[in-house]
Structure formats: C-alpha cells, structure tokens
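To: structure desk
From: M.T.
Subject: fold request, one chain
Message: Could you run this one when you get a chance? Sequence is below, nothing fancy, just the single chain.
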Amino acid sequence: MEFKFTEENLTRIEQEVKKYPERKPAVMAALYLAQEQNGYISNEVIKEVADVLGITAEDVLGVVTFYTMYHQKPMGKFHLQVCTNVSCMLRGGYEIWDQVKDKFGIENLGITEDQNFSLEEVECMGSCGTAPMIAVNEDYYENLTNEKVEEILESLKSTN
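Reply: Done. Structure tokens follow.
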C-alpha cells in the first residue's frame, strides 16, 4: 500500500526543514508527522520520508529503529508506555506493568483485539523524580499508585 504525505504535512515538513542548514535533521519531525498520518512507520513511509527529504531509506530506518517513539506496526488507539527503568522500578514500575498487562491481557508491543489498547515497556522517560510513570499516547502520568493507574485505564475505556 503506497503512502504519500498530505499537502498539509508536506508544508509542515518544509517549515521544519527551514530550521536547519540541510534537510536531513528534519527526519524526526517528518517521521512523527508520517506516524500521525499513517498510524505507524511502514516500509512505504520510510521510502516517502527519504524521498521527501532527499536522504537514503537506510538513514530513515536508522532513526526509526533507534527511537522507541516510532512504531513499525499498528498500535492501539491508546498506546500505553510503562517505564520500568531504575527509578520507576524502585517505586513500583513493575507492579504497574503487571497491572496493565493483566487488565488488557496483552504482552509487550501487544494490542487488544478491539485495537483500542497497545502496551509497551520502555526505558527512562525522563521522570525519575516523579516515578513511577506511564504515558498514554502523548500524555504523561506521574507519581502513580495502582489506584491512580486503575482510574486512568477506566477513564480511557469509557472514552471509546
């Protein structure tokens, strides 16, 4: 299935390109827009980003595979990222991880049958002082307890 950026997203990429002396540094922003438009980063998306920026597909793939914020397969409407790095682990990160896994019956990078929820175990998300934390799409939740996590998950279920 072919992927092409919308005219609006091409304009946004060109605005991003103007911030740099060359086109290549705009790859992260272009990938973010592509993921927003397509839902995930497919091989077709990688090729389109490379073509638009005038760089190699290998350069784009290197960025996609390095950063966890880019998904190479479809994720759920609500993508839940649970931090289990040291600070979060010491303050209950694995308990939260198990809680979310058990609630939805999915493993790391799994997605629920209804496509509403996906789950990912992640390394540090930069919230060590307010650990443990999770992210739901682009929203961060910090200083969590199992009760707070349950409230968050239930509120997500009610918005479907």
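Reply (cont.): The chain has a mean pLDDT of 95. Let me know if you need anything else for the meeting.
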